[in-house]
């Protein structure tokens, strides 16, 4: 990338009705809104100038431009700054000085880290956009990740029973499946590895080196449980069984809320929905497989698919928003990569919790795991088979035409 051009003297960009306009040299800056007073905003206008001078396009509305580059509204960005502020002030990495010889503000550090995660661009490119060096981008991003991992965990936790009941009611109204708490799916985070680390353990079925991410999501596409760090060569089923979530469910400590007793007088326990790459378990409903399925079976499959697609949509949104996970990562530290993945999931959830909407111009992948063949797990737990039949009968009782 060529070095950024120097800006022309006598003009400076400021805000007016959400648009960027030029103002004469020496004119006083417009007053900031109350929520931004005391915060550093100079970095934002310097960033916009460099972006404009590079000839690249961006939304003309300033609020949309901010969401385009950092995925969040200014309000949510300021909230994220408040989470990490204490760490970034009290324990700053060494050498955080920009090319003008000034210490980087917390806001600029957070912007650098979030731009790196959102764009997936190289540290050199991100550094050039902010007027800092590659090593500064590396230090700032990792310090941000460490702080978020420690201080933002409340945004990714198993929900309280009241929230679970809300999820179950929403999904039943949407798809007609009672007592369903969400969906499970997994995706590969692709990377290149040095020759000394390129073992077959990390080489998956698509001949990529990758790390797995498994997520349980609710009705709002929020991650409520994740597991990562395992090689992409594993099967979906084995990944599930290596997770703490699986162990909790098997021991009766997860998905252990109130059972439903429909008119058939059969108990329906809490469960999640998954694709046929997962085993059929009492708490994990997978679709019926085979030919010549009955109408009730096909109806179950149709409704179950509507729920399990929540997992696919959540992972596509995650990778589309935080493109560092969608691009091929260049020789990442495999010990640090799980932390990067976790923080991207935390940011994904924070956007949902703060009711931020992604811009329509943010291109999401059609599928979060292109290039991979579908797996089929033939493992069937007898209790899971019975539970699926009970749910299918319950659906039929509400629709005599089935």
Number-wise, the strands total: 8
| Strand portion | 5-15%
Q: Order of SSEs, N→C? A: EEHHHHHHHEEEHHEEHEHH
Task: Determine Rg (CA atoms, Å).
Answer: 24 Å
What proportion of the residues is helical, as a percent range? 40-55%
Q: Oligomer, anyone? A: single chain
Q: Which structural class do you get from the secondary structure elements?
A: alpha/beta
**Low-confidence regions:** 1-38
Mean model confidence by pLDDT? 87
The gross shape turns out to be: elongated
For the sheet with most strands, the description reads: 6 strands, mixed
How far apart, in Å, are the first and last alpha carbons? 62 Å
Number of helices: 12
Structure write-up:
With 402 residues, this protein is of the alpha/beta class. The protein is built from twelve helices and eight strands. Strands 3, 4, 5, 6, 7 and 8 form a six-stranded mixed beta sheet that branches. Strands 1-2 form a two-stranded antiparallel sheet. Helix 5 crosses helix 6 and helix 6 (134-151) crosses helix 11 (337-353). The relative contact order is 0.13.
């Amino acid at each position: 990338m060529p070095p950024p051009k120097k800006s022309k003297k006598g003009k400076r960009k400021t805000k007016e009705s959400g648009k960027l306009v030029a103002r004469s040299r020496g004119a006083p800056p417009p007053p900031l809104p109350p929520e931004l007073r005391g915060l550093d905003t100079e970095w934002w206008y310097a960033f916009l100038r460099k972006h404009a001078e590079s000839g690249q396009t961006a939304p003309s509305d300033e609020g949309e431009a901010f969401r385009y580059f950092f995925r969040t509204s200014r309000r949510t960005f300021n909230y994220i700054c408040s989470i990490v502020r204490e760490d970034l002030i009290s324990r700053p990495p060494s050498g955080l000085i920009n090319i003008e010889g000034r210490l980087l503000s917390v806001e600029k550090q957070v912007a650098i880290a979030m731009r790196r995660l959102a764009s997936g661009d190289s540290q050199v490119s991100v550094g050039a956009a902010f007027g800092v060096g590659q090593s500064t981008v590396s230090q700032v991003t990792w310090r941000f990740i460490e702080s978020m991992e420690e201080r933002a965990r409340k945004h990714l936790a198993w929900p309280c029973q009241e929230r679970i009941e809300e999820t179950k009611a929403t999904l039943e109204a949407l798809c007609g499946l009672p007592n369903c708490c969400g969906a499970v799916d997994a995706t590969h985070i692709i990377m290149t590895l040095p020759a000394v680390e390129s073992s077959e353990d990390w080489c998956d079925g698509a001949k990529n080196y990758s790390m797995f991410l498994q997520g349980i999501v609710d009705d709002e596409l929020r991650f409520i449980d994740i597991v990562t760090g395992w090689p992409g060569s594993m099967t979906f089923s084995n990944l599930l069984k290596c997770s703490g979530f699986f162990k909790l469910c098997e021991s009766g400590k997860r998905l252990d809320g109130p059972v439903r007793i429909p008119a058939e007088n059969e108990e329906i326990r809490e469960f999640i929905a998954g694709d046929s790459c997962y085993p059929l378990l009492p708490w994990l409903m997978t679709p019926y497989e085979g030919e010549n399925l009955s109408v009730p079976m096909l109806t179950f499959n149709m409704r179950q698919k509507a729920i399990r697609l929540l997992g696919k949509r959540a992972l596509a949104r995650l990778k589309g928003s935080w493109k560092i996970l969608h691009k091929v990562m260049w020789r990442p530290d495999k010990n640090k990569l799980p932390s990067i993945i976790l923080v991207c999931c935390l940011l994904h959830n924070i956007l949902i919790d703060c009711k931020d909407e992604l811009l329509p111009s943010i291109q999401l992948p059609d599928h979060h795991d292109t290039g991979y063949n579908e797996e089929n797990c033939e493992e069937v737990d007898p209790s899971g088979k019975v539970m699926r039949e009970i749910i299918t009968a319950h659906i039929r009782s509400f629709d005599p035409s089935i």
